[in-house]
Hints:
Elements: H1 3-9, E1 13-17, H2 24-40, E2 45-49, E3 77-81, H3 93-98, E4 101-106, E5 117-120, H4 127-134, H5 142-156, H6 166-176, H7 182-191, H8 195-206, E6 209-211, E7 216-221, H9 223-229, H10 239-244, E8 251-259, E9 262-269, H11 275-281, E10 285-286, E11 290-296, H12 299-317
Parallel strand pairs: 1-2, 1-3, 3-4, 4-5, 7-8
Antiparallel strand pairs: 6-7, 8-9, 9-11, 10-11
The structure holds adenosine monophosphate (AMP) and manganese (II) ion (MN) (2 copies).
One manganese (II) ion binds near residues 25, 82, 107 and 155.
Amino acid sequence: MTVLEQMLEQTGSVVILGHVRPDGDCLGSTLGLYHYIQTNYPAVRAAVYLEESSPKFGYLTGYDAILHETDEERYELCICLDCGDEERLGAFGVYLANASKSLCLDHHITNTRFCEVNLVSENASSTCEILFEQLDEEKIDKAAAECLYTGLIHDTGVFKYSCTSARTMEIAGKLMAKGIDFGSIIDNSFYKKTYVQNQILGRALLESITFLDGKCIFSALRQSEMEFYGVNGKDMDGIIDQLRLTEGVEVAIFMYQTGPQEFKVSLRSQNAVDVSRIASYFGGGGHVRAAGCTMSGRIHDVVNNLSLHIAKQLDAAGPQEE
Ligand code: AMP
Ligand code: MN
Ligand code: MN
């Protein structure tokens, strides 16, 4: 029996949490576990608390049951998924504080081991991959498989980032064998965009600027621009991925304004730069090739501050192969 199963066997109630601004892996892992508990541990009272997420994930079983506000409920066991530190639980951290037992499943290199039991594997492609290893394969049904598959494709960029391993593909195969419509899941949650999402992607690419001899690229969206197009933070998926794919670029930066002089920053690197180190320095975190943080100041200041750290790492790495 796995650690997760042992803990589920011994509890009467579970609260499932993820990180602020939930993404595909966060939603896939929390809802996959929620559904698994509901079908296989019907006596256990379970609930998922997360911030509002993009409606494109509405096909995930349990999406409408997610609670978005804190309440007076208390749960014995708190399971935190895809979350590297307590602060990233946002307002729902209160359930962790009130629980008598806690378990964290995560793959962030910056994870602080903030739960009682921490199953953290930096080499795993996604939290969904770690979760899969903790579940009884026989007891995973089609609905749970859809959730887990969603996490795999989002954190691997549909099986192409360096975090994708042979094991990731094996797990994807096992999930496919549960009868999921994998093509629709990939199209609807990863590639499909609304008209305004395409517009904002176009705008971000059009206004992007390269620096450090074309090794870096950045693009920034101000609140006024977001208001003009009628978009919010949930509409930005895919922008950083396209910036990252610009020929010759080692590090891509995308940021959108979240307050007066405040920006949510996404960082991606190709080879030489560890962006988790840079994001950590500015109070954020993530993975070696994909990380994020929130930064204050004008766009110009934010880029300058990041640029110093990127240049230092690029210099240390020496000349890159063309
Ligand atoms: P994003 O650029 O927001 O897609 O995030 C890239 C990766 O970094 C994801 O795995 C996030 O969970 C992680 N990440 C983003 N922002 C933060 C933050 N402020 N603190 C810790 N990890 C973060
Ligand atoms: Mn995530
Ligand atoms: Mn993840």
